[in-house]
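re: the backbone from monday

yeah here it is again, tokenized this time
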């Protein structure tokens, strides 16, 4: 009986303890639930009782694939797409813009160089053309002047020496004119008067041809002409007449009055 009584007490004490713990647990749960529902002193209208609590995170929506194979994965972006889509800073040129500007500068520089080279080439060609035209004109003018001057400069007649020497000096220039004046005054004139000398010069001319004269060299202001000159001389020292076939190199210079003889050399 004693064991039975002891077992009965122990059983009642354990049930009482369990009931007490169960009641305490329920009370704590209720307090916790009221704590979540009842607003605190600083609660706003959004946290008032009776309203659903605002979720702190977005809702997760599960989407079923449209077929058994599932969804296709999107292609991975390439680095070029990031470079194209990347915003550029204001005022900073992109690689394409810098390349285009560099090409434009290079093209502009090349065009300028070509333009300058073209202008120089045109100037040189124009200068050479002008020089060639002037040289050709000088060639013709000097040749004509030499043909006309040779008979006058290389001829004289003792009966009118002053007139002949004056006409000859009009076709001379420079130092050679002074030498001619000195020679005719001191040597040629006195000799011609003493021996009644007469010299008549002509530029040789083949039958049906032009006078035998040609230009050796020419420039804008100077020319050298080779002439074949025949001189017929008569005097008291010669019986009859004497014919001399001479080759004469005549140098001419351009002056304000035209082409003048600046030198005569017998070859």
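seq for it, each position gets an aa:
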């Amino acid at each position: 009986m004693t064991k039975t009584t002891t077992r009965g007490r122990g059983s009642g004490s354990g049930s009482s303890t369990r009931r007490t713990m169960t009641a305490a647990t329920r009370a704590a749960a209720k307090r916790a639930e009221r704590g979540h529902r009842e607003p605190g002193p600083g609660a706003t209208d959004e946290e008032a009782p009776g309203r659903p609590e605002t979720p702190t995170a977005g809702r997760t929506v599960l989407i079923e694939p449209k077929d058994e194979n599932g969804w296709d994965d999107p292609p991975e972006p390439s680095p070029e797409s990031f470079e194209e889509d990347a915003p550029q800073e204001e005022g900073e040129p992109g690689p394409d813009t810098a390349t285009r500007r560099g090409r434009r500068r290079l093209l502009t520089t090349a065009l300028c160089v070509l333009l300058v080279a073209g202008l120089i080439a045109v100037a040189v060609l124009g200068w050479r053309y002008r020089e060639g035209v002037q040289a050709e004109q000088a060639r013709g003018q000097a040749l004509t002047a030499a043909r006309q001057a040779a008979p006058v400069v290389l001829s004289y007649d003792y009966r009118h020496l002053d007139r002949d020497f004056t006409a000859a000096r009009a076709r001379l220039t420079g130092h050679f004119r002074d030498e001619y004046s000195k020679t005719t005054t001191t040597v040629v004139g006195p000799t011609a008067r003493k021996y009644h000398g007469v010299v008549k010069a002509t530029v040789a001319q083949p039958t049906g041809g032009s006078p035998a004269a040609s230009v050796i060299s020419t420039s804008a202001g100077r020319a050298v002409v080779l002439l074949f000159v025949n001189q017929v001389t008569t005097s008291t020292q010669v019986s009859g007449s004497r014919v001399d076939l001479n080759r004469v190199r005549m140098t001419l210079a351009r002056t304000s009055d035209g082409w003048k003889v600046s030198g005569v050399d017998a070859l």
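DSSP finds five helices and six strands in the chain. The first strand starts at residue 156 and ends at 157.
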